[in-house]
Structure formats: C-alpha cells, structure tokens
Write a structure and sequence with these properties.
With 192 residues, the chain is mainly α. The chain has a domain of 101 residues. 74% of the residues lie in helices and 0% in strands. It has 3 helices and no strands. The longest helix is centred in the middle third of the chain and has 81 residues.
Length: 192
Amino acid sequence: MRITPLDIRKQPFPRALRGCDSHAVYSFLELVAGEYEVLIRQNNEFATQIKCLEEQLGKYTGIERVLNETLMSAQRSSDEARVNAQKEAELIIKDAQIRADRYEAEARQRVNALESEIISIRNQRDSFLARFKAMLSTQLNLLEVISGDLRSDDQGDQAAEPPRGRQQTQLPPAPSFPPPQRGVPPQPIITG
C-alpha cells in the first residue's frame, strides 16, 4: 500500500487523557507530508528525464540506420563515387557511433546517478523511520520511569507519618497511567 501526502495529512489519532499535543502532531505530519511530496515530485522528474534520454538514444539509433541506408544508395549510384562515398560514410558512421556511444554512456551515467539518488533517498527514509521509532521508544520508557517514580513516591508518602505539632498539607492524588496495551503504539509526551 502506497502512502500519499494526503494520507499523512488526514491520518486521525485517538485522543487520550494527557495525550499528545494535537497541534504539534499535525504540524509534524504536515512537515512529513511536505517532504514526502517533494520526494515524489523529484522521483517523477527523474522518471521524465530518463524517458527523454531514452527517446534521444532512440533518435540517434534512427540516425545511424538512416546513415546506413544512405551509404547503400550511394554505392548503387556510381562505382566511381562509391569509393569516395564509402570512405565518407564510414567517417560519418564512426562519428555517429562515437556520438551515440557518448550519449549512451551519458544516459547510463544519468540512470546510475538517479538510481544512486533513489537508494540514498530510501536510506534517508529508513534512517528517519528508525530515529522516529527510537524517539517513540525513548518517550515510552521515560513515561514508564516517571509513572514508576510517582507510584513509589505515593507509597512512600502513605507509609510516613506526619510530624507531630505541624499540620499536614493536603497533596493532590498522583495521576494514574493506564498500562500500555499490546498492539497499540505508545503516544509520545510532548510538552510545550
């Protein structure tokens, strides 16, 4: 399934207590969608360039074929002019072959460069996804540590007796976080 920039922009996220800042999530999705649009546009431009280069190569092959036909008609027209025409045609063919080889080599180099660039873009995408997953994992671990600290603080506060002669201040109850559900990706905590 291919993901389009529109899919990224329109992706719904469930709301949860103390969940993500929806503005930050959607602005980040807009940034990702914009970058993805640029990559798609570049990929389409590269495909168009490859097609143009292949058409040019076909034209030069057609020119070579026309030159060969010209050589045959020149040979039939005159025995005396045949020797001179053959030499001239061979020079033209060599020049055309050199140019065709040069254009073919340039086209192959462009294709190789475009393939390398596509591989580089894919590697960048994979690197981005790996960093994003690592960030999400770090946020989840941080949330678990904070949740564990809050629980241990609550247990420690309940076990300690208030000092005599001083009035105990009322503390708000510690927030309780639901345990992570299997199969549901954790939501990062974004403060701002």
